[in-house]
Design a protein that fits this description.
Ribulose 1,5 Bisphosphate Carboxylase/Oxygenase; about 775 residues; Rossmann fold; alpha+beta; single chain; three-stranded antiparallel beta sheet; about 35% helix; six-stranded mixed beta sheet; 5 domains
Length: about 775
């Protein structure tokens, strides 16, 4: 009080009574009052400018002294009203919002528990209960096995009758409440949560630490529930929706939300420009066929085509004019319905004054273009020429014959991918029941064995969720292997025991280092090294097969370690690669390069294309030469005859990497029944290459294997024996089984977009 007196204040308000500060100090009666306020000013309300000015100054002063809070006392009503400039509600203070508060990439906005990742390391249910077909009694709970840990299971089994727990029912058939009880426990038994808490408390024992590590994995963050933002971000809402709720909406719903958003006059002025930008960007995302995505979708889960279309929307959003847009196969991962949308977007870019250059194999996009530049006529050393340039409408029978354009021959029916004369019958299958991963709607599906099956549907309909997230990891676990987290499903049944292996052939690089190449991947280089080690010059100098390896010491150039290049690391710029001065890029020592076979040294062999290598090694009929040809011939069969034997895996496209893997399986001569799963194998493939790809699929089926393909290309779909069509739309409006059957029958299904675009291909 003395400090207030020194600051020039003379009175206080104590329980609605005005008291002089001097009297208050002398009486020392503070304990007799419940509420005490400092009086800043007393004003008689008048409707003049002087009163308004004084009131404003006094209120501003009061807010300063009260650190954002002030009170106004009305003597007539004996009422005190509270006012505050602080960010608070009902007495609770909140953090004042700023742009960083809504970014999980900023420490000011990221969830403190998961640090903005949306996942934490916790106990993974799929690792604890790997086989959900088993009952609790049959040993579904993996850690509750053995003499010591089995006591936890015994406690549950012996007391299950007291609370009617179905110990003989498969885990996937347990209700949500029964599964939750298994983890939480009750007075009769301690659940899995208590079990893992015990392990953590006794983690000083090494066996417990090992057990904890075995069952830990990435789980949903319990604090932010995967939104990646701190809880304070949920307090700020627009039309009763927080930002985490908005980014979980499919883009189609989110766009509708912002279009129908109603704001008051002040809010409209503030948000006018922002809403224009938001709605434009959401509209572009819908235009390129990404309406099923959510804004919080991780980029690592997007396909190549989805990533490319997202980049395209960034350019569209900038509204540039007079620019050159270069797109490399934007139709990757696109259904025919979505390709039409993409074409309209590209044409719109062109109409507003831009040039659009597209590297593409898709028939619809080629036909929609104004100018075609066709390179060829073949691939590799057989190509590199412009065989045709001009408008597609100017092509005639005479022009097609004259220019020798394989593309034109397929476009005008001179060549085609034939429809199979008959569809293979099947009686064995794998059945998936209760699949509800991502947007799949609790579907049941049968996947035929020993035939060629296509999983189709528009982008986002649930194809990858079904095959990549459920079938593949689920079968791997049944086979005793681990292939990532298995998606939500009830059961895998049927004739899966007849499948001895499942191979997922994706577009990831064939090797993790730049040293990997097609020759090493297919084990052909082992035979080539043996061939050079058997030459007379090698025997004289005692060179073994290892001397012709660029991966180990001996014959490789030690300056570049067999790379052929020297990488110079630049601190603030991209690394620079220089040709090795010692070996001149030839990777081996000079004395090793002196060993020749039919006039070529080991480096010359690596520089041969597959076609050239087959031709070269066919000159002699030796056993080693035949083995080399047998190893690399599958590369030619899948349309990779133009690839060099020693070409670094890092320079291969995704489609080329996938076909190298296919060639590897063709060369292995597997006798056991294997299911091969391909994810869009036509990526980067010309019509002629697709013809070769289908022939390779048929060759694998002829050996007793199963082919399962996720695909949009109508020529592949029409060549399959069975179709599983998902949809009808993407995102929340997808996830249903629209059709299962043969290509001839899907064209009769009105709800199937795939059938609509397949009609023309089936005549």
């Amino acid at each position: 009080m003395a400090l207030l007196l020194q600051q020039g204040y003379t009175k206080i308000l104590a329980d609605n009574k005005q008291i002089k500060i001097e009297s208050f100090i002398k009486e020392n009666t503070a304990i007799n009052y419940k509420e005490i306020y400092t009086i800043i000013d007393r004003i008689v309300v008048k409707s003049d400018k002087e009163t308004e000015s004084r009131s404003a100054d006094s209120i501003e002063h009061a807010l300063y002294e009260g650190m954002g809070t002030c009170y106004i006392f009305l003597p007539d009503k004996k009422e005190i009203k509270r006012y505050s400039t602080n960010f608070e509600y009902q007495g609770k203070s909140f953090e004042e919002p700023n742009i960083h508060m809504f970014s999980f990439n900023s420490p000011l906005g990221a969830c403190p528990l998961c640090e903005g990742y949306g996942q934490t390391i916790g106990i993974d249910e799929d690792l604890v209960i790997p086989n959900k077909n088993l009952s609790i009694y049959e040993g579904a709970i993996a850690p509750w096995k053995g003499e010591k840990m089995g006591k936890w299971l015994d406690k549950l089994i012996y007391n299950a009758e007291h609370f009617n727990f179905p110990i003989h029912k498969p885990y996937y058939k347990l209700t949500e409440g029964e599964q939750k009880l298994l983890w939480s426990g009750n007075k009769y038994f301690k659940g899995l949560n208590s079990f893992f808490t015990m392990l953590e408390n006794d983690s000083y024992k090494i066996q417990y630490r090992v057990m904890l590590a075995r069952y830990r994995g990435k789980t949903l963050c319990p604090a932010c529930k995967g939104s990646r933002l701190k809880p304070e971000a949920n307090y700020i809402k627009i039309n009763n929706h927080s930002l985490p709720e908005l980014v979980l909406m499919p883009i189609k719903e989110l766009h509708q939300f912002f279009i129908s958003l109603k704001l008051n006059d002040d809010e409209t002025i503030i948000a006018k420009r922002l809403l224009i930008e938001i709605n434009n960007r959401l509209q572009y995302l819908m235009d390129v066929g990404l309406s099923y995505l959510t804004l919080n979708r991780k980029s690592s889960t997007l396909s190549g085509g989805e990533s490319q279309r997202l980049n395209l929307t960034t350019s569209l959003g900038s509204s540039l004019v007079g620019s050159l847009y270069i797109l490399d196969e934007p139709s990757i991962g696109l259904h025919g319905r979505d390709t039409d949308r993409l074409i309209s977007v590209l044409q719109r870019l062109n109409k507003i004054g831009n040039s659009v250059l597209v590297v593409e194999h898709d028939e619809e996009i080629i036909k929609a273009s104004d100018e075609i530049i066709d390179l060829g006529p073949g691939a590799g050393r057989l190509g590199g020429e412009i065989v045709y340039q001009g408008n597609i409408n100017k092509l005639s029978n005479e022009t097609i014959t004259k220019c020798n354009s394989i593309t034109a021959q397929y476009l005008y029916g001179k060549k085609n991918i034939p429809v199979p004369e008959r569809r293979r019958n099947w009686n064995q299958y794998i059945e998936l029941t209760g699949v509800r991963e991502n947007n799949l709607k609790n579907i049941d599906i049968q996947i035929p064995l020993h035939v060629f099956t296509c999983v189709t549907g528009v982008s986002g309909s649930g194809k990858s969720s079904l095959i990549k997230n459920v079938l593949y990891p689920g079968l791997k676990k049944i086979m005793g292997e681990y292939a990532g987290k298995t998606g939500k499903h009830a059961n895998i049944s049927g004739d899966y025991r007849t499948v001895t292996d499942i191979e997922f052939v994706d577009q990831n690089p064939i090797g993790r280092s730049s040293r990997s190449n097609p020759a090493t991947y297919l084990k052909a280089y082992d035979e080539i090294r043996k061939l050079y080690a058997s030459q007379q010059a090698s025997k004289i100098n005692n060179y073994k097969a290892s001397h012709f390896s660029f991966n180990i010491d001996g014959g490789r150039c030690e300056e570049c370690q067999g790379e052929g290049i020297i990488k110079v690391e630049m601190q603030f710029m991209a690394d620079v690669e220089l040709v090795c001065e010692s070996c001149k890029g030839r990777r081996f020592k000079d004395d090793i390069l002196e060993v020749e076979y039919e006039g070529k040294n080991i480096y010359d062999i690596l520089e041969l294309t597959v076609d050239e290598a087959i031709e070269f090694f066919s000159q002699k009929e030796g056993t080693t030469e035949r083995r080399i040809i047998n190893k690399i011939k599958p590369l030619q069969d899948v349309g990779l005859g133009y690839v060099k034997l020693g070409q670094s895996s890092s320079t291969l496209s995704g489609g080329e990497s996938q076909r190298v893997k296919l060639a590897f399986f063709l060369s292995k001569e597997k006798t056991n029944h294997t299911m091969f799963v391909f994810d869009e194998p036509t990526t980067g493939l010309h019509f002629d290459d697709i013809n070769k790809l289908i022939a390779s699929f048929n060759a694998l089926i002829a050996r007793g294997h199963t082919i399962l393909v996720i695909e949009h290309h109508p020529d592949v779909i029409k060549s399959s024996d069975w179709i599983i069509d998902l949809g009808p739309e993407g995102g929340n409006n997808g996830g249903y089984v629209v059709f299962t059957g043969t290509p001839e029958n899907i064209i009769k299904e009105d709800k199937s977009y795939t059938g609509k675009y397949l009609k023309e291909k089936l005549g």
